[in-house]
Write a structure and sequence with these properties.
five-stranded mixed barrel, about 500 residues, 15 helices, binds iron/sulfur cluster, six-stranded parallel sheet, alpha/beta, globular, single chain, binds 5'-deoxyadenosine
């Protein structure tokens, strides 16, 4: 094979690429198809494999489906074996420090795999790569990483991968560093619609409604790594969901860092409650969920729509973060303890069968025992079905990182344990309340070990029950026979 002739051909492909999106990416997918299929032929017809490893939240999970969509369209076969995949990509999270440490551990493991097979591609994308310090660290300490991109240019994966293959053709690029492609945009320039998509479940699907966040909670790195809030056009969202419904999807989960401020960045756009109503009008869609709701933007109108529309699931994730008004102020949450409690009461009054879940941070700078007691008492009053509890993690670049009075580790740990106990006790007490009832369940999978089917109630609580695998993807009535703390054992009726 003559590398320099190939290089000339690659350069020509790059020069002739269309400039508009997503046409440009489909053009590079076509070019990749040829490269990847010839790699497959060289090894006896088996297509090269790819493995996408996702860390973090539902946004990242959704992004990974798009990434996998592009890779599959280009001819890769999916595998979950990261040690021997031809292309491994880590879609990273940086919300807390331990998320970062986890990535470096995984990267370290791949070092020897890469030595044995230098043609293998290792790529990193996602939130952590929007932090300059982390990118620098990867470039210095992990020379075997081949491709780096961020949250704002995920759509251009096909082009970046093509450029990586092109660099590998150039015999002048001998060192790993010279063959590497690093492309990061400081800000989101646009929303690119209509990219390939690899759906994980045929019956349910996450749908982005907005990207980024404008809230700047003082502990949170999201606004810096995901940028300012940008809403997708409702037309695009609704047409995507119509397509999903036509494809047999029963449940959609609308995704945004703060769904309640959907449309605030575009005066001509509808509000979130109105969008929900429109989604409920789509035939075939049986269940509508959404994540996440900032309490300060949760409107009366949203509560009304939830109460009126039976398709909207009886679950609301309402991050509280702290039960102390003083700490909430320092967090820039823009609601008080009383405001949060009032909101919960209003919601419970309008939608009595709602399941409420929350996020709580322990050990925010300046948190005293008294502040912490306030958090415990709000948890007692709100009776959450689940609360995700986090130890405060200092994120460089956020205002809280510079605050005085960082709480000592042992104090935080002790508070955290107390909170966990309380949250657990209440969740156990609450989760049995529907025992004896027969309620609709969307069956999501059959457990390989027990053969039991696993499904979800409208309020998001899991139910395990005996039944045949053919029922996966169907909604059916199940009697909740026994409560096992955080889930039910059921029986088909
Ligand atoms: N430390 C600890 N928890 C955090 N979260 C966000 N930033 C931090 C941080 N610096 C939590 C919040 C948020 C959830 C997704 O992660 O509770 O709601
Ligand atoms: Fe972070 Fe606050 Fe935005 Fe949530 S609302 S993503 S916690 S800044």
């Amino acid at each position: 094979m003559n590398h320099q002739t190939d290089l000339t051909r690659y350069e020509e492909i790059l020069r002739e690429a269309p400039s508009e999106e997503p046409a440009r990416q489909y053009y590079f997918i076509d070019a990749l198809k040829q490269i990847i299929s010839s790699q497959g032929q060289e090894r006896g017809g088996q297509a090269p494999s790819c493995c996408v490893v996702t860390f973090g939240c539902q946004m990242n999970a959704r992004d990974s489906e798009k990434i996998l969509g592009t890779l599959k369209a280009a001819g890769y076969r999916e595998t979950d074996r990261e040690e021997d995949a031809d292309f491994v990509l880590f879609n990273t999270c940086t919300i807390r420090e331990n998320a970062n440490e986890h990535l470096y551990g995984r990267l370290g493991h791949l070092k020897h795999c890469k030595k044995e097979h230098p043609e293998r591609i290792i790529a990193i994308c996602g939130c952590m790569m929007q932090e300059a310090d982390e990118v620098e660290k990867v470039q210095e300490k992990y020379p075997y990483v081949d491709l780096i991109f961020g949250t704002h240019n995920l759509y251009s994966l096909a082009e970046l991968l093509f450029r990586l293959f092109m660099k590998r053709q150039d015999e002048h690029n001998k060192k790993a560093r010279e063959r590497r492609v690093v492309e990061l945009l400081p800000e989101a320039e646009r929303i690119v619609e209509e990219l390939p998509n690899a759906r994980k479940y045929p019956f349910k699907q996450g749908v982005n409604i907005s990207f980024g966040c404008n809230n700047f909670c003082t502990y949170c790195i999201v606004p810096y790594v995901r940028g300012r809030e940008r809403s997708r056009r409702s037309e695009d969202i609704l047409s995507e969901i119509r397509g999903l419904a036509a494809d047999g999807v029963l449940e959609v989960m609308l995704l945004g860092q703060n769904v309640n401020s959907y449309g605030n960045d575009d005066p001509s756009e509808m509000s979130f409650p109105e969008l929900l109503r429109q989604v409920c009008r789509i035939d075939g869609i049986q269940r509508v969920r959404f994540m996440t709701s900032h309490p300060k933007d949760l409107s009366e109108e949203l509560i009304r729509v939830m109460a009126e529309e039976p398709k909207i699931c009886r679950h609301l994730h309402l991050p509280m973060q702290s039960g102390s008004s003083r700490i909430l102020k320092a967090m820039n949450r823009r609601y008080t303890r009383e405001g949060y409690l009032e909101l919960v009461e209003k919601i419970r009054r309008a939608i009595p069968d709602i399941s409420l879940t929350t996020d709580i941070i322990v050990g925010f700078p300046g948190e005293t025992e008294e502040d912490f007691q306030d958090t415990l008492s709000v948890v007692e009053q709100c009776r959450f079905d689940a609360a995700f509890t986090f130890i405060y993690s200092k994120r460089t670049g956020t205002p809280a990182a510079k605050m005085e009075d960082q709480v000592p580790e042992d104090v935080v740990k002790e508070r955290f344990d107390r909170l966990l106990k309380l949250v657990d006790r209440i969740a156990r007490e609450e989760s049995g309340r529907d025992r004896g009832k027969t309620l609709p369940v969307l069956v999501e999978e059959q457990q390989p070990e027990t053969g039991l089917l696993t499904g979800r109630l409208s309020n998001n609580i899991l139910v395990h029950f005996p039944g045949p695998a053919e029922l996966v993807g169907k909604i059916l009535p199940v009697k909740l026979v026994e409560s096992r703390g955080f889930y039910y054992i059921g029986q088909m009726v």
